[in-house]
Write a structure and sequence with these properties.
Layout: E1 7-15, H1 18-26, E2 31-34, H2 49-60, E3 65-70, H3 79-91, E4 96-99, E5 113-116, H4 125-133, E6 138-140, H5 147-156, E7 161-167, H6 179-184, E8 201-204, E9 210-215, E10 222-224, H7 229-235, E11 239-242, H8 249-269, E12 274-276, E13 281-284, E14 298-299, E15 322-324, E16 335-339, E17 345-354, E18 357-360, E19 372-376, H9 378-384, E20 390-400, E21 404-409, E22 414-418, H10 432-440, E23 447-454, H11 464-485, E24 504-505, H12 514-522, E25 527-528, E26 542-548, H13 552-555, E27 579-583, E28 586-593, E29 598-604
Parallel strand pairs: 1-2, 1-11, 1-12, 2-3, 3-4, 4-5, 5-6, 6-7, 7-11, 10-14, 20-23, 24-25
Antiparallel strand pairs: 7-10, 8-9, 8-27, 13-20, 15-19, 16-17, 16-19, 17-18, 20-21, 21-22, 26-29, 27-28, 28-29
């Protein structure tokens, strides 16, 4: 939709706990997403409501927002507890819930803003428009979309569209992975993903011949869309999400600060088009470098090509870190990794570096010419682990008059205090630099004096203690004003006549409770199969447990859609189908839909 004002751009960072969330805000996040005490898609990352309340107070001081990840599917007996928790989160001033289960829209809850999780598997303009029409205020798209597909969705809706920008990738469409539930009774849709996609598999053809052995065929590299940030902005994306709600604080600091810098440059270049969605400037004591943090190698996935190559990490699911081009870049105590000639991934800690020689802490043979990666940079880790890596501050302008003092901050708050400076005459003129320094001493508050103007006569004597007390009162008044004026978001209304884009839902659509079923039926769905998580044990000989845009054929140079795609230089002889992959008791048949350019993995009983 056309809008004459600049579009607000959001950098959304992950947090496993409140301390990490505060660090993300300090390092430039406009919003953070964090798990509440239950019903988040990372069961190991829950936080108390009291912690979230204190976090929200801190975030709101920068006009940053806090989103609670409420994105598991809910079983029938969990609905009352979910309703109570949502009320508590609303009372704690949480800005929005990120949800997957449509039953939440039928609970008796306060008008808290709702965001459609990536678990909703939104890939089309029609699905996005439906979610907007039923009350969602922000829509998180599937990770697999191209720039053109993202632009098509953005053109269809008026609410902010959110895409991932960095971090780990799921091989299946989010919300469409049922492998954990099928093989280990640990559902990704219930926050208990066992990461079956990171295991090594043996690939066999229709005759049982081994094609690839012990390869991480479903393990993808990490997403890094930094090069496409300008294109994503032009496509209409308003929120950029960093994946990593189980990542440590150092990771969140580094990646958040990196993308803060990139986004700020785009905003500064086109202030007529884009604007910050929060306030405050983050001053860093380090240079952000994404390659220093955990990564499996980087890919921009499908953003720029519907048939990309080299998006997987078949030799290891572990972090590769950064490639080392010179031994001189290494330090004593660093951790390095490498691949042996047989393709085995190994790591070792450096005891010391002597010239061009590496002395490892344990005996290991590294052949000459082996490519090295640094997975632990001792000096970097010491630097990024400090408590003072960033300070975020709110700019304040102060004007001092004989009978009042006024402060205006960048959030738009303005406060005035009436004062009595007396009539005592100074023995020498008041030094305005002294006045500036007095009001600039903001201590451990979040404020930073940007401008100061004095209108008092130079002949008037004003005790510095009085000015110091005024400064303290002013800043406290700004805190109070910000709490009062904070623009608390509310849930959008639901259009009763909005029709869901499909008439039939199967187990992959994750309907796990009666309220979700009621919701879909009220919007035109006529046939609904229960979610896998609430079904009796399936006895099918095989059923779909993953749906992927990643394709093992394409990744190995054997795409069936033409020779032009076979650019890997490998033997492109077609493999005899059906193909199967196995790891112990995990056996899956692969099915290829070349018309849709998708791969499905089916559980074999």
């Amino acid at each position: 939709m056309a809008n004459s004002s600049p579009r607000k751009i959001e950098l959304l960072a992950p947090a496993k706990d409140a301390a990490t969330a505060r660090a993300a805000i300090d390092h430039g996040a406009d919003a953070v997403y964090i798990g509440p005490s239950a019903f988040g898609a990372r069961a190991a990352a829950g936080n108390s409501t009291d912690d979230l309340r204190r976090l929200a107070d801190y975030a709101h001081s920068f006009r940053a927002r806090v989103y609670a990840t409420f994105n598991t599917i809910l079983k029938e007996n969990e609905l009352p507890a979910a309703e109570r928790l949502i009320r508590d989160l609303y009372d704690a001033r949480i800005d929005a819930l990120i949800v997957q289960d449509m039953g939440i829209l039928r609970l008796d809850i306060p008008p808290i803003e709702l965001h459609a999780s990536t678990q909703c598997d939104t890939r089309t303009p029609e699905k996005a428009r439906f979610l907007q029409d039923v009350g969602f205020s922000q829509i998180v798209l599937a990770r697999e979309l191209t720039l053109e597909e993202i632009a098509a969705v953005c053109a269809e809706v008026s609410v902010p569209v959110e895409t991932f920008i960095h971090g780990a990738l799921c091989v299946s469409y989010s919300g469409r992975c049922h492998a954990g539930e099928a093989f280990r009774h640990r559902s990704a849709n219930r926050g208990e993903c066992p990461q079956i996609c990171r295991l090594p598999y043996t690939l066999r053809d229709a005759d049982g011949k081994v094609l690839l052995r012990d390869r991480h065929l479903l393990s993808l590299r990490d997403f890094n869309a930094s090069a496409s940030l300008p294109d994503l902005l032009r496509a209409g994306v308003s929120s950029f999400k960093i994946e990593g709600r189980l990542k440590d604080t150092a990771y969140v600091k580094n990646i958040t600060a990196y993308y803060r810098g990139l986004i700020d440059r785009e905003i500064e270049a086109r202030p007529d088009l884009y604007a910050r969605s929060s306030c405050g400037r983050s001053e860093l004591n380090f240079e952000p470098r994404p390659e220093k943090s955990f990564n499996r190698g980087f890919t921009d996935y499908f953003l720029t090509s519907r048939r990309p190559v080299a998006i997987s990490s078949p030799l290891t699911p572990k972090s590769l870190g950064e490639e080392i081009t010179s031994v001189g870049d290494l330090h004593n105590g660093d951790g390095i990794s490498f691949f042996t000639p047989e393709g085995e991934y190994k790591g070792v800690r450096i005891n010391r570096v002597e010239g061009s020689r590496i002395i490892p802490a344990t005996q290991v043979r590294i052949p000459v010419g082996t490519k090295l990666y640094r997975t632990f940079d001792r000096i970097w880790e010491q630097q990024i682990s400090r408590d003072d890596t960033a300070r975020r501050s709110i700019a304040v302008d102060v004007e001092l008059f004989e009978n009042r003092v006024t402060a205006t901050d960048e959030r738009g708050n303005r406060v005035t205090l009436q004062v009595d400076l007396g009539t005592e005459q100074a023995r020498k003129p008041m030094d305005e630099a002294v006045l500036w320094r007095t009001f600039a001493k903001t201590g451990d508050t979040i404020y930073r004096l940007r401008n100061f103007m004095s209108h008092i006569p130079a002949s008037l004597f004003v005790p510095l203690s009085l000015l110091t007390n005024l400064r303290r009162q002013l800043l406290e008044a700004l805190d109070s004003a910000n709490r009062t004026t904070y623009p608390f978001p509310l849930r959008r209304p639901e259009k009763a006549d909005a029709l869901y884009p499909a008439a039939r839902l199967d187990y992959r659509d994750n309907v796990a409770n009666s309220l979700a079923e009621t919701f879909y039926r009220s919007h035109g769905v006529t046939e609904i199969e229960a979610a896998l998580e609430v079904q009796p044990r399936r006895t099918d000989s095989e059923f779909v447990v993953m749906t992927c845009r990643h394709c093992i054929l394409r990744e190995n140079g054997r795409c069936l859609r033409g020779k032009a795609s076979r650019s890997s230089g490998k033997d492109a002889t077609p493999w005899k189908q059906p193909l199967t992959i196995e790891n112990g008791d995990i056996r899956m048949r692969l099915r290829f839909d070349c018309n849709r350019c998708e791969m499905q993995a089916l559980k074999l009983q």
